[in-house]
Write a structure and sequence with these properties.
Blueprint lengths: L13 H11 L3 H13 L6 H14 L2 H12 L6 H13 L3 H13 L6 H13 L3 H14 L5 H14 L2 H10 L5 H13 L3 H13 L6 H14 L2 H13 L8 H13 L3 H10 L5 H13 L3 H13 L6 H14 L2 H13 L7 H13 L3 H14 L1
Helix pairs in contact: 1-3, 2-3, 3-4, 3-5, 4-5, 5-6, 5-7, 6-7, 7-8, 7-9, 8-9, 9-10, 9-11, 10-11, 11-12, 11-13, 12-13, 13-14, 13-15, 15-16, 15-17, 16-17, 17-18, 17-19, 18-19, 19-20, 19-21, 21-22
Length: 386
Amino acid sequence: MSPKPSIVKLKHNPFQDITSLLQKCKHRDQLHQIHARIITTGLVHNLPIASKLVSSFALIALPATNFTARLIADRVDGLDTYTWNTIIRGYLAGNHPKEALLVYSHVRRKGLEVDSYTLQFAIKACRLMPIILEGKQLHNHVLKLGFVSEIIIQTALLNMYGVFGELRYMQQVFDETPQRDLIMWNSIVAAYAQHNFPYKALAVASAMASDGLRLNGLSVVSLLSACSSLQALRQGKAIHGYAIRGHLLDNHDVFVYNSLVSMYSKCGFLSNASRLFQMMPIGNVVSWTSMINGFSENNYLKEALALFEEMEAKNIRPDEVTILGVISMSSKLQSFKLGEWIEHYIERNGFRTGSIAMSNALMDMHAKCGNIKKACQILMGCRRSR
């Protein structure tokens, strides 16, 4: 391995040379060398230099470099909002939302100015933790600081409340936003669908269409999920038609295809589900699982088993959702031999059998297949693990 490049020597103008080096610097070790040189030249309290140095450390987004960026920033007075924002963003990029919130609180305590990006990053940190109390306090900051008309802030708040399942607050943010864009409409449709309010999701989509906005792939996926929950075949077909007219299937969007397969399967319209499944140029484990579960839930058990075997033959690894569907199918077939095979398959392929869902499914399957002894063994194993 070749040695890491060192920084070049400074020329007669330290300020210009250090600025140039910081702009070119790509490596953490080089950055530490530049930092040491800045200290020895006495430029550490020069605001443009200090700001660039802090940003360079923060943008590497490692715990050590974020810490260094914060340490330098605390020792320099007068750093601008952009510099503090890079520290918060660096912690977020490194998946440290708690530290990002602590920096935001520090900025507020010092009475420093915040902008829409500061608030957006802080709200995202709350969403990632998640902390609803901190999120509501940030909402109050947004109102007090006069950012209520900033659509990126309102969208961040809406998404945060959607993650928490605080749908009343989410709707309030949406209603208070004077100008809503497609991203905001998509977010509220998705939140209602994900939190099992399919009627609300469809109602918002109707209002969205009345507002003159076109549905995109994300909207269609959310609405098809709502139709699946309601087994609303007529609405699902209408959305399918919209997706065709809007050329949303032309790019072979696997998420839209999967949602259509799932919707038609849930509605018992397996001919359409199967046709779409066959049309998919590239399916994934979700595609296969949706089709297998569709056959199983509509009591086409042999077809479901054959599809699972085909999935195995094509070396597509199932996930836990697939396995739970296959266990359910085995329970319906009530085949002692098949139940034993599934048990061995799960153990052989390293699936986690200790989860409540998996244990309950296996107990139910073995009991229905007549293997009461095995069902009791699983039950006793669950009791011992508690």
